[in-house]
Amino acid sequence: MQVNTGWMVGVWVAMGGAFGSLVRYGVGRLCSWCLPNTSSVLGTGLVNLVGAFLLGVVVSSFPANPKPSVWVLFLGVGFCGGLTTFSTLAMELADLMQQRRFLGLIGYGAGSLALGLLAFLAGVWMASKS
Fold first, then answer.
1. Is residue 49 part of a domain?
2. Is residue 101 part of a domain?
3. If pLDDT is split at 50, 70 and 90, which confidence band does 2 have?
4. What is the pLDDT of residues 11-47, one digit of tens each?
5. Which residues contact 87 (CB under 8 A, 6 or more apart)?
6. Which residue segment(s) compose the domain that 82 sits in?
7. Higher pLDDT, residue 1 or 60
8. How many folded domains does the chain comprise?
9. What's this model's pTM, rounded to 2 decimal places?
10. Over the chain, what HEC string results?
C-alpha cells in the first residue's frame, strides 16, 4: 500500500517511532533487570543490531519508490529509527573515553559498526531468500 498524503506519512512514521522507542526502553530495562551489574552497552548494542537486521529486511523486501509503502514508513523509518540509537552509542563511547578505557572504546565503536553492517547485510540476505 502506497501513502500519498503528506500528513499520513508523518502518522505512520510517528506510530512506528513510538513503538520502536518503547521496545528500546523495554529492552534496556530488561537487560538491567536480568543483568543488574552490567552497563547499558548490552542493551544499546542489542537494539542496534536487531534494528540494523530488521532495516536490512525492510529495504530488501520493499523496492525503492518515490511514494514509500506504509511498511517502509512504519517499520523502516519509524520503528527502526525509534529502536536504534546512535546518540546513546555516542554517549557510551564518550563515557569510555572519559574513563580512559581506550581499548573498550575502540572495540565497542568498531565492533558496533562492523556488527551493525553485518546484521544489516544478514537482513538483506534473509529477505532475498524468501
1. yes
2. yes
3. low
4. 999 999 999 999 999 998 898 888 887 777 888 999 9
5. none
6. 6-129
7. 60
8. 1
9. 0.88
10. CECCCHHHHHHHHHHHHHHHHHHHHHHHHHHHHHCCCCCCHHHHHHHHHHHHHHHHHHHHHCCCCCCCEHHHHHHHHHHHHHHCCHHHHHHHHHHHHHCCCHHHHHHHHHHHHHHHHHHHHHHHHHHHHC
